[in-house]
Amino acid sequence: MELSPDTIRKALQGVKYPGFTRDIVSFGLVKDVKIDGGKVNVSLVLPKPDDKLKSDLDNSVRTAILETPGVSDVDIQISARQPKAPAGQGPAKAEKSAKLPDIKYYIAVASGKGGVGKSTVAVNIAVAMAKMRDKVALMDADIWGPSIPTMLGIKDRPKATEDNKIVPLNKFGLKLMSIGFLVNEEETVIWRGPMVHGAIKQFIEDVIWDDTDHLVIDLPPGTGDAQLSLVQTVPLSGGLIVTTPQDVALIDVKRGVQMFRKLNVPILGIVENMSYLEQTGDGDVIDIFGRGGGRRMAEQFGVPFLGEIPIDPQIRIGGDGGVPIVESHPESTAAIAFTKMAVHILDTVEKT
Ligand SMILES: Nc1ncnc2c1ncn2[C@@H]1O[C@H](COP(=O)(O)OP(=O)(O)OP(=O)(O)O)[C@@H](O)[C@H]1O
Ligand SMILES: [Mg+2]
Q1: Residues in contact with 55: Cβ distance below 8 Å, sequence separation at least 6, in sequence order
Q2: Which of 8, 105, 234, 344 lies in the 20 to 30 Å Cα band around 91?
Q3: Angle CA(244)–CA(197)–CA(50) in degrees, nearest 5?
């Protein structure tokens, strides 16, 4: 078989982007392939400057090409896209690239700390939004703990089209995609901001989000570099901060507020989860974690308070069982609270 740029691209489809199950060609890293007799010249562009990534890819690309029949020599150039202006030096909107899909509203759900119910809030709000709007999608961008497929009872994997685009799944009237479908769990532990940035951007660009107006994004917990670069990746219409009422969680709310403000992302509001426990029977309420902290924080920072979600075993059961409470028990206090939050968010972003 004659050596051609296509043969080389095919060979490079066997080279995985470190940390991913996807290959470097479908990730768009291979910029150019030239053939001159048996000599192959390849240029790659990395999402960010990264020496380790550069040398890993240089090795694996070289090996893959040299193993291709007919190749006598190989020359590889690896360049990197230059990092964007540091956080705070420009509005988030300026980041929008021509390749991003045509989504009207990007809504991020963040939390200062893990385990506060961020994914539960993201899922229930998205499902509630999908009852009111036709074109709602949910993206699980929590590279370290993707949980949304479980919360929505999804066992299928997304399929790719011939041109390597990913088709999102559907559930409860929502389009859904999770980065957990694509990444290799062991390796994401060591990811830092720049890698997350490149990966999420590529992820958003490669999924067929056709006909999506509202995209809810479940961010990884915390407010470090990874979250910051993720928030910079898309032109967010607004960010939501989820907390529990205890002081230890509230301290981190400040960081969430600062993160969004630094990037000029409007804060849609603070949600207090696991606020209190409703007793069955007499309707009495028990404050387990000290209700009211979320509201105080919202007042202190001058951002909207979107409401309290009680501790309700049905929320956990629904999360584990794949049917969110707004779907399984729409009359419950929690489901009504989630629905009100969804209404507030839709009203706010659609006005912008
Ligand atoms: N209001 C609630 N009442 C009862 N259980 C809840 C409530 N909110 C969340 N949970 C349960 O608490 C657990 C943690 O919630 P969830 O996974 O949504 O948190 P998270 O902030 O996304 O966590 P992580 O930081 O791991 O991503 C889940 O089992 C969930 O079902
Ligand atoms: Mg989560």
Answers
A1: none
A2: 344
A3: 130
Q: What pLDDT does 46 receive?
A: 82
Residue 88: its pLDDT value, please? 42
Residue 96: is its pLDDT beyond 60?
no
Q: Examine the domain organization and report whether 70 and 201 are in the same domain.
A: no
User: Is there a single domain that holds both residue 172 and residue 61?
Assistant: no
**Rounded to the nearest whole angstrom, what is the distance from the C-alpha of residue 244 to the centroid of ligand 1?**
10
Range of the domain at 20: 5-80
Distances (CA, A) of 329 to 84, 321, 323, 332: 45, 13, 9, 6
Which residue CA neighbors atom 15 of ligand 1 most closely? Answer: 117
**3-state SS class at 299:** helix
Q: Whose CA is nearest to atom 23 of ligand 1?
A: 115
Atom of ligand 1 nearest to the CA of 242: 21
Our count of domains for the chain comes to 2
Protein residue with its CA nearest to atom 2 in ligand 1:
311
Q: Is residue 85 part of a domain?
A: no
Over residues 314-329, mean pLDDT: 96
User: 197 or 204: whose pLDDT is higher?
Assistant: 204
CATH number for the domain spanning 337: value is: 3.40.50.300
CA pair distance 352, 350, nearest whole angstrom: 5
Report pLDDT for 21: 66
Q: Which residues surround ligand 2, an ion (CB under 5 A)?
A: 119, 147
Q: Taking all residues of the chain, what is their mean pLDDT, rounded to a whole number?
A: 86
**Each residue of 157-193: pLDDT tens digit?**
888 888 888 899 999 999 999 987 876 666 555 555 6
**Does 86 reside within a domain?**
no
pLDDT in tens, 106-161: 999 999 999 999 999 999 999 999 999 999 999 998 877 889 999 999 988 888 88
| Calpha distance 39→42 (Å, rounded) | 10
pLDDT at res. 224: 81
Whether residue 201 sits in one domain with residue 66: no
Residues 168 and 41 in one domain: no
Q: Which residues, judged by CB distance below 6 Å to any ligand atom, belong to the binding site of ligand 1? A: 111, 114-120, 142, 145, 147, 221, 273-274, 309, 311-312, 315-316, 319
